[in-house]
From TrEMBL:
Species whose genome carries this gene: Cryobacterium mannosilyticum
Keyword hit for 4Fe-4S: no
Key word Cell inner membrane present: no
Pathway participation: Lipid metabolism; butanoate metabolism; Lipid metabolism; fatty acid beta-oxidation
Family: In the central section; belongs to the 3-hydroxyacyl-CoA dehydrogenase family. Belongs to the 3-hydroxyacyl-CoA dehydrogenase family.
Domain 3-hydroxyacyl-CoA dehydrogenase NAD binding: 343-522
InterPro entries with a match to the protein in the record: 3-OHacyl-CoA_DH_NAD-bd (IPR006176), 3HC_DH_C (IPR006108), 6-PGluconate_DH-like_C_sf (IPR008927), ClpP/crotonase-like_dom_sf (IPR029045), Enoyl-CoA_hydra/iso (IPR001753), FA_oxidation_alpha_subunit (IPR050136), NAD(P)-bd_dom_sf (IPR036291)
Reactions accelerated catalytically: a (3S)-3-hydroxyacyl-CoA + NAD(+) = a 3-oxoacyl-CoA + NADH + H(+)
GO aspect biological process, one term: fatty acid beta-oxidation
Pfam families: 3HCDH, 3HCDH_N, ECH_1
Single GO term (MF): long-chain (3S)-3-hydroxyacyl-CoA dehydrogenase (NAD+) activity
Domain 3-hydroxyacyl-CoA dehydrogenase C-terminal intervals: 525-614
This protein's name: 3-hydroxyacyl-CoA dehydrogenase
Length: 720
């Protein structure tokens, strides 16, 4: 068994010269009958925009504080120890900037051991230990609480979670062992596996219901009530019930079965490329038996392996893209240039247009008018928006007063004159160049000279769409992804005519819609659809030449994508997919394939066979007949190389043509717009790792490549 107190943690301290230290401040709180509660407040001295984090120096200070308090408890000076955080924050977990700098597997294991060494001391105080969860508690922040004997929670806490598996890690400071042994295996699987993959967190009430917290108190008197409750526990007058503690039957019967179900769910949902969810599953399975120390040592080894691997570094890269680069978009003009938006016009009243209108009215809280060819379509669109507002009200997402105000802001008309005072007009009409040109030429007659025009085209030239405009400088591409309310990306397309006022306004509007915007040059497919067209074109070309569907899926599997090319084609629509391939083939006939078979599949209307619940059973028999006839099938290995090299070539061309400013923007688009996995870092880190970048253009997208310290170099043949 490891003796954590005998370990030398100085290699970690050497990496921490610039750590923002979260200090442990102690004060004694007098209780009745001469008892004393030592209250430790975690505070990094910054405001709420810089949460407490747990780096090596922070953990060593916390451990020393616990040692001193344990000595005081042994002398009878204190009768309980409680930990809480600065206002609104307990802790946001490990300092990821430090994790990414760890130079070796051995040092990675030291970090895991240091977390156990420091946080685990709470269970060895000789007096009851408490954590008062007063605010945000993520990752290691929640593990502080799990290592204590008792927990209270503030009713207003917005986020409690163990999100590690979404970042290429596992809860490695006790969470993987302690949580299932506190709330049961099924609940722990939800918190550790399911919630992170769905970007969900627990609220305070959820934590109480699951048994993570023992009691919940209102914010106004949270600390006072927590102290009073702790006093009762110390005095023995408060009995703590934990109904979700796993018993013998759960350990013997339910435990392994629940883990097995979760494993099958993972395989179906994310495939088997991402490592951390499966490592977490193994730890959760093992947690049903053995000692606390054995559980901690399993976490030490597992966390060390993940910290030294490729996927953690790729995850941290992706995390920084989403948290930092997305908030400071490359090439964005000064926000001060943006026009204020006081009214929005939406051309079209179909599903996509109605989703736009709903989003604009919810986020901007300004009048929104929609129009279409006839009043019946307009009325249908307005009714859809009103129904969606009612659904939000019924789900308690908005109040009845808010719902009434939003409904009052939405109107529909066939009279284009109603657009005269709109500052922002966006179209969502049929994806045909002539239609879009005519729509904008007509609406320009009715709007103010400085009103902004936006098109949601997914692949047409924005510049050509504006060819009939008197003022093309006010036109910008504003490409949403479906479903509009959920997908976080907008591609903002900058044409040679688009002026800075228009571009700035588009970026500011995207921010107010709570979307991440990336500026792209006006080229076919922009970023996301161009890369998807490359993948789908290669996939259909392989099928057309005789390669079975399953072999194609096997070839693309190492990319770790959320679905196969054929599932994606059915999701976007086979006709849409065929149109996208045609568009890109017309633009780049030497590099992008068209597929006559895909047009035939679109006419047939089906590619996959599903059961009554929508689960994929196989391939539609008629679809198999449609694509039969190819005589030069490829192996999965050959096709994987084609996917890799084809993407490396296309992305390099996109960067050379300044479609976006850097490889980071490509990855940000693919993560946010196409669901490419965090743990792969999007797409370019993977292409560097497998040697495709070197094979294609003799370099890498990232210097140095984004690799783990324990990574195996690319195969010797990679540069051939």
């Amino acid at each position: 068994m490891s003796d954590y107190s005998a370990l030398d943690f100085s290699p970690l301290v050497a990496l921490s010269a610039d750590e923002v230290v979260t200090h442990s401040f102690v004060r004694d709180v007098p209780l009745s009958h001469g008892r004393v509660l030592a209250l430790v407040t975690l505070d990094n001295g910054r405001d709420h925009t810089r949460p407490n984090t747990l780096g090596p120096v922070t953990l060593l200070e916390f451990a020393a504080t616990m040692d001193a308090l344990k000595a005081r408890a042994a002398r009878g000076e204190i009768h309980g120890v409680a930990v809480t955080g600065k206002p609104f924050i307990l802790a946001a977990g490990a300092d990821l900037s430090k994790v990414s700098e760890i130079p070796s597997l051995e040092t990675g294991k030291l970090l895991a051991q240091l977390g156990h060494h420091a946080l685990g001391k709470q269970s060895e105080m000789g007096v009851p230990s408490f954590v008062f969860i007063n605010g945000l508690a993520l990752g290691g922040g929640l593990e502080i609480a799990l290592n204590a004997d008792y927990r209270t929670v503030d009713a207003s806490v917005p986020a409690i979670a163990l999100p590690e598996v979404s970042l290429g890690l596992i809860p490695g400071w006790g969470g993987s062992y302690l949580l299932p042994n506190l709330i049961g295996i099924e609940n722990a699987l939800k918190v550790i596996i399911e919630n992170p993959l769905k970007n969900r967190v627990l609220k305070a009430a959820d934590a109480l219901e699951l048994g993570i917290a023992d009691v919940l108190f209102a914010s106004a008197s949270f600390l006072e009530n927590s102290i009073a409750w702790a006093e009762k526990v110390i005095a023995g007058t408060e009995t703590v019930a934990r109904p979700n503690l796993p018993g013998k039957i759960e350990r013997l019967v339910k435990w392994d079965a629940a883990v097995g179900i979760a494993r099958r769910m993972l395989e179906n949902r994310i495939g088997t490329v991402a490592m951390s969810p499966y490592v977490a599953l193994d730890l959760l399975k093992a947690a049903k038996s053995g000692t606390r120390q054995e559980g901690f040592e399993r976490e030490d080894d597992s966390l060390a392996g993940l910290i030294s691997g490729d996927q953690l570094q790729a995850s941290i890269y992706a995390f920084n893209l989403v948290q930092k680069r997305a908030k400071r978009p490359a090439g964005a003009p000064d926000k001060a240039l943006a026009r204020p938006i006081t009214k929005v016009g939406v051309i079209g009243a179909g599903l996509m247009a109605s989703q736009f209108a709903l989003l604009f009215v919810r986020r901007l809280r300004v009048p929104v008018v929609i129009t279409d060819l006839d009043q019946a379509r307009v009325d249908k669109g307005v009714a859809y928006i009103h129904d969606e507002i009612l659904a939000l009200e019924n789900k308690k997402r908005i109040t009845s007063d808010e719902a009434n105000r939003l409904r009052a802001l939405v109107t529909g008309t066939t009279d284009k004159a109603q657009f005269a005072d709109a500052d922002w007009v966006i179209e969502a009409v049929f994806e045909e160049l002539g239609v879009k040109q005519d729509v904008f030429a007509e609406i320009e007659k009715h709007i103010a000279p400085d009103a902004i025009l936006a098109t949601n085209t997914s692949s047409l030239s924005v510049e050509q769409i504006g060819a009939k405009l008197a003022h093309p400088e006010r036109l910008v591409g504003f490409h949403f992804f479906n479903p509009v309310a959920v997908m976080p990306l907008i591609e903002v397309v900058n044409t040679p005519q688009t002026n800075d006022v228009t571009l700035s306004t588009a970026m500011v509007v995207a921010g107010k819609l709570k979307k991440n915007a990336v500026i792209t040059r006006d080229t076919p497919g922009f970023v996301v659809n161009r890369i998807l067209a490359k993948v789908l074109g290669e996939a259909m070309h392989a099928v057309d030449t005789g390669t079975p569907f399953d072999v194609v899926s096997e070839a693309i599997a190492p990319f770790g994508l959320p679905m196969t090319p054929f599932e994606l084609l059915e999701l976007v629509g086979l006709k849409v997919g065929a149109h996208v391939l045609d568009t890109h083939h017309a633009a780049f006939p030497d590099r992008f394939f068209e597929s006559e078979n895909l047009h035939k599949l679109a006419e047939h209307g089906k590619l996959l066979e599903r059961d009554a619940k929508g689960k994929i059973k196989g391939y539609d028999k008629a679809a198999l007949k449609i694509v039969a006839g190819g005589t030069t099938p490829m192996t999965a290995t050959d096709l994987q190389r084609r996917f890799e090299d084809g993407l490396a070539d296309e992305i390099k061309r996109m960067l050379d043509d300044d479609v976006v400013h850097a490889a980071e923007d490509i990855d940000l688009c693919m993560i946010l717009g196409a669901g490419y996995p965090f743990q792969m870092g999007g797409v370019t880190p993977y292409l560097d790792r497998v040697g495709a970048s070197e094979r294609v253009f003799g370099g890498t997208f990232h210097t140095p490549p984004i690799r783990g310290v324990g990574a195996v170099p690319a195969l010797a043949g990679a540069a051939e």
